[in-house]
Design a protein that fits this description.
Blueprint: E1 5-10, E2 17-22, E3 30-32, H1 46-68, E4 75-87, E5 90-104, H2 109-122, H3 124-127, E6 133-141
Parallel strand pairs: 5-6
Antiparallel strand pairs: 1-2, 2-3, 4-5
Helix pairs in contact: 1-2
Length: 148
């Protein structure tokens, strides 16, 4: 399987901007920049895209491991918090925290923790990074709708 993307940058690093397009077309000329002091511009950044990649991979791998355990999740939601700091005159990603919540019909706590550990160990995105990835996880029981 091959995935690709093309990024074009124009201008200097401080005030320039770029466009990124993925081969799937899901992102097509999406505006990106290094970031700003507010972080509220209508564009993404390389670090935000990496945070999204880790979160989406963890949700997918957890759903896959739940299915292997015979549990069909209603939802697996992962929030990714990537910390980027300037160190010795260059920027480094110093940590990534993942906060995962799975809405599932049933599963005991220990089995759920095992599923999450296995999912983390199988996530190819986090494996590609030299950054510590910490995962906190919880599960909620899926409640069937009550019909009147």
């Amino acid at each position: 399987m091959i995935r690709s993307a093309t990024a074009v940058w124009k201008g200097n690093p401080a005030i320039g901007e770029g466009l990124v397009t993925t081969s799937s077309g899901v992102m097509s000329n999406a505006l990106y920049s290094f970031g700003s002091s507010t972080g509220h511009e209508p564009c993404t950044s390389p670090s935000e895209m990496l945070a999204a990649a880790v979160a989406s991979c963890m949700s997918l791998m957890t759903a896959q491991e739940l299915a292997k355990a015979g549990v069909r999740p209603h939802e697996v939601k992962t929030e990714s918090v990537l910390t980027l700091e300037e160190q010795r005159k260059h920027w480094e990603i110093v940590s990534i925290e993942l906060h995962l919540t799975a809405v599932i019909p049933q599963m005991d706590d220990e089995e759920f923790r095992k599923v999450v550990r296995t999912a983390k160990s199988k996530c190819p995105i986090s494996h590609a990074l030299k950054v510590p990835v910490k995962v906190t996880a919880k599960h909620e029981l899926e409640h069937a709708a009550v019909l009147a």
